[in-house]
């Protein structure tokens, strides 16, 4: 079992990586899925052989409340249909932690349940917030789960200038599900999961 990394340099590096993703020009992205709630794009990842996904949509709520629903904490399990368990394993500061969570099977269980251990960091960004994470090789893998790996991922949430009660939520996700999976199944699941994330989040914020 690996030691936990030093939180401060990891948090800084993670934030810088996400800000770099946020500045990738539009011409490099290809649309993967559009719904009334969000648009999902993708481009080849520089971290592994799959894709870096970008998702974006307007959410009708203030930035802090949206991010409280996304980052590790009591809200996330209530509304995120993909997440089945979540435990905070370590807390470094108020805005830094290590969490272990499991996800449900997808595509009629072609994609079996997965387990992840992620370092999570939430910080200010422009007038809003950035909550980001990266997987760690830490802790024993539980039986009946394949251990997946999240390369740098994150969500930027900033208020709309003319409508401060609405926020623009932009996510960058690159998940290596691992295990023996056809890449086409993974790509289908990722685009749909990200689009559903927005519709589920909007429903949760209204309750």
TrEMBL record:
<dbReference type="InterPro" id="IPR023393">
    <property type="entry name" value="START-like_dom_sf"/>
</dbReference>
<dbReference type="GO" id="GO:0120020">
    <property type="term" value="F:cholesterol transfer activity"/>
</dbReference>
<dbReference type="GO" id="GO:0010879">
    <property type="term" value="P:cholesterol transport involved in cholesterol storage"/>
</dbReference>
<dbReference type="GO" id="GO:0070508">
    <property type="term" value="P:cholesterol import"/>
</dbReference>
<dbReference type="GO" id="GO:0015485">
    <property type="term" value="F:cholesterol binding"/>
</dbReference>
<dbReference type="Pfam" id="PF01852">
    <property type="entry name" value="START"/>
</dbReference>
<dbReference type="InterPro" id="IPR042555">
    <property type="entry name" value="StarD4"/>
</dbReference>
<dbReference type="GO" id="GO:0005829">
    <property type="term" value="C:cytosol"/>
</dbReference>
<dbReference type="GO" id="GO:0032367">
    <property type="term" value="P:intracellular cholesterol transport"/>
</dbReference>
<feature type="domain" description="START">
    <location>
        <begin position="10"/>
        <end position="207"/>
    </location>
</feature>
<protein>
    <submittedName>
        <fullName>STAR4 protein</fullName>
    </submittedName>
</protein>
<dbReference type="InterPro" id="IPR002913">
    <property type="entry name" value="START_lipid-bd_dom"/>
</dbReference>
<dbReference type="GO" id="GO:0005783">
    <property type="term" value="C:endoplasmic reticulum"/>
</dbReference>
